[in-house]
Amino acid sequence: MILSVAVLVSHLAGAPPLSSYQPEPTELQRARQLMLSRPNECVALTNYFLQRREVDPAQMINSRQDFDHLELARLYRTREQSLAAWQLQALCQANEGLLLPADASINQAIELAQRYRQPEEQAASLLIKAKLALARQAPEQAQALLDEAEPLLNGDASSYLEDALQLLRATTLLYLQRFDEARQAFEQIRLHALQQDDGIQQAWANYLLGKYYQLLQQDELALSHYVETLDLLNKRRQYYLKAMAAEKAASLSAALGEADQAVHYANLATTEFELLGNSPLLIGSLLNLGRVTRAGNDANLALVYFFNALDLVRIQGDNELMARLYLEIGHSYLQLKTFAEARHYLDMARANFERSQDVPRQIDTLLQLGQLHLEQQETGLALLQLDRARQLAEQRDDVPRLIESHRLLAQLFETSGNMTQALVHHKAFHAYFERASRLNRLLTQSLVQGNDQQLQQERELTGLRRQNEQLQQDRQRFALLAASLSLIAPLLLYGMIRNHIRGRRLQQEGTELRHALLVEPRTGLPNWRQLMQRLPQEMAKRQLRSEQWYLNETEAQPFNDKIYYFLLHVPFMVDLSERVGLEHAANIQQKLGNYLQGRIHPKARLYDLREGQFIYVISQRQVVDLQQTLSSLERMFTEFPCQFQLDQRLAIGIIGHPFLPKAPHALDDMRLGDILYLAMAAAHQLAEQTGELAWVELLAVDCQQAAFFNGEIRHCCVQAILKGLVKVNSSHKKQQIDWHALAPEPAALI
């Protein structure tokens, strides 16, 4: 039931805040930092500071004597600083284990507070003295000191001392074995801390409730409180409390057979003690971690922890602690069947325990040595060790160790064949075991009333409390999320509207750009890109109809579903800018585009290919008479109104698609284009010779001549014209056309 001294003096035990007009000296700041990690240095710092002379605070405040003020601050101490120094010294001495000097130091602080009439500082000192009384197992004295401190606390400034007082009162009740009152007090403290959102106070109440349930041998409930303490502290820098809770959780997990959990919590305790920086506490944690790891059948790893602790102990020079480590190391080597190493360390441990007269641990060492000799079948040596252990245990009436010694002696005599002695020790083993069991039952019955019902209630209460805390956290997260969304939603809405408007604008700009790419900017007529987009679909449709005509032909009749392509060469559009200037040329071209769009057949299309070339596309079904269509095209340009005299002698090349109705796939769009340009070149030749409008139509005769057009298409077409496979219709005498000049041979490669 004894709580460690460090637990008592580390929680809410600092001196009250100093007055705001003077900063805390460097020595006291450093002493506070070292109170738990290196208490011996903390004591040295406070001793050094208390060697200064005490001075009246009025002498420390003089704005006209800055140099004197700084000198006084370095050489003297004020009343408040003296109080803080004595309180710190008492705490550090207690953490070092020097309880009597600590009591003397805190008495000095109490005397100063009474002399200077500072009730709050006097109450803080009385609380520290009460903690020291609990450490000396004097709960009645601690209760009297708390009663003396309570009237001195009043006002909001003492709220943290009020919390410390309530926690100490509950702890005192626990020491006085008033268990029900202690539990109710801890529960009230925990509930109040939860309402005030004081996680550290709630964690301490949970930790001490775990101690309470551990005293009542309700290990599962105690473990749940230690785990809850760790959850409450989580990422807080409360290294000592986290380490203590983790160490308790490791021991209980090991007792409950949860080896993995025990190792986890023992590792956590060691990590927190290492962050704390207190070597003795870290050594104790490494010892516990090694034991838990060895209990989990990993003696090799346990040896690593024990040897790490041994290195720290050698630095400190603590022979008693070193002997305990020798015992643990020997025990681990024995579990690994490394008998030579086990004997070496167990012999050193026994020698140290005999020298320090530590009888309980001497018995433990003798039992381990007896078991080692049993493993090596050295019956005589084992009997000497175990019988000596039994005698020492009988002298102290140490029941647990008597049980173990009689068990091993019975095993020894059974192994050696002495059944009479084995029976004697078996009877003794069972007698002591029955005695221990009876004592445990009596203790449990005296401490626990209605154990099952209380345990169930506590479990349900713990579960409800955790659910409540989780709901509180969820509600806070939801409120934060809702607030964040309420702030972000307008921004998101603005961004969505802005992106939508921008997307619509970009989409419109893209549509306009795609339209602009398909229109010749000078005339506003569709350009060659639009022609090339539509041409493949148009050709595929005519090719399909041509195939159907060819396959379904029942009587000789020509294919009458062609599409005519008129390639026009307009002379005045070639050098218009050179003749009239850029401004007039642009105006004329724009007017011409608007004019032509209003004059063409409703089902015809006109494309501007630049450089004075236009393609007029119309279905054969819309052409009643080709000569009439040509006259319409001529009038369309000759009637164009313009203030300038324009050369309007058109040269027109004409073909129909499919060019070869019975083999529509023989010629693609590029080869058809070459034939159309050949027709226009012939018309241009006639226009130059006659000075008049000229047109030339190329028409393939109705026969299977597709193979004749394999090769360079212009030469093939000229040869077909000369051989009569392609018919030529013209506005003038077709004999005037020099076809060889229109398809020159390529230059020979050198």
Automatic annotation (TrEMBL):
InterPro entries from the UniProt entry: Bac_ResReg_Asp_Phosphatase, Rev_trsase/Diguanyl_cyclase, TPR-like_helical_dom_sf, TPR_rpt
Subcellular location per the Swiss-Prot or TrEMBL entry: Cytoplasm
Chief place of localization: cytoplasm
Domain of life: Bacteria
Signal peptide: none
Keywords from the UniProt entry: Cytoplasm, Repeat, TPR repeat
Transmembrane regions listed in the UniProt entry: none
Annotated family: Belongs to the Rap family.
Protein name as catalogued: GGDEF domain-containing protein
Organism: Zobellella iuensis
